[in-house]
Amino acid sequence: LIATTGTQAYSIEKCDILASLEADPSSVSSPVAFNDIQPMAVIDACSIAISRDDENKPRFLLHRARGYLKGGEGEKALLDLKYAHQLGYPAATFGLATAYFLGDDVYQDLEKAKELFINSYENGVWWSARGLYLIYANEIYEYYDLEKAKEWEARFKSGG
Question: How many of the other CB atoms lie within 10 Å of CB of 88?
Fold first, then answer.
């Protein structure tokens, strides 16, 4: 399958079809809800796609991380998210921020989550505004600020 975005064409891999993330502005396939992910199928398809080592590798790493998370392999998921983040993939940065926000398989670090959400927001992931809203609206957050929370919520609701 081929998807077009502006003047670029992307091939849609089985990895994309099985694990595409709604928050990913570079997605080439319909999003898959986390509960609908089939971990082994995702991990297998995405590992094959990653092995080609092409320009889509960061996106495939993000998708495989979702498969690992769904399959209960948080450490492997974090390795893929961190690698895709290091490769400059904004949706992976969003995923990493979400992990630090939730404290899933890493120590919860709201300040680190905030930095990563801001980074991914500035790079086109408008879903990060929702994460920033949740951080600033969290009463245990050191810099709790309802006004900032409302500003980020408004950005999220407006789509960026």
Answer: 10
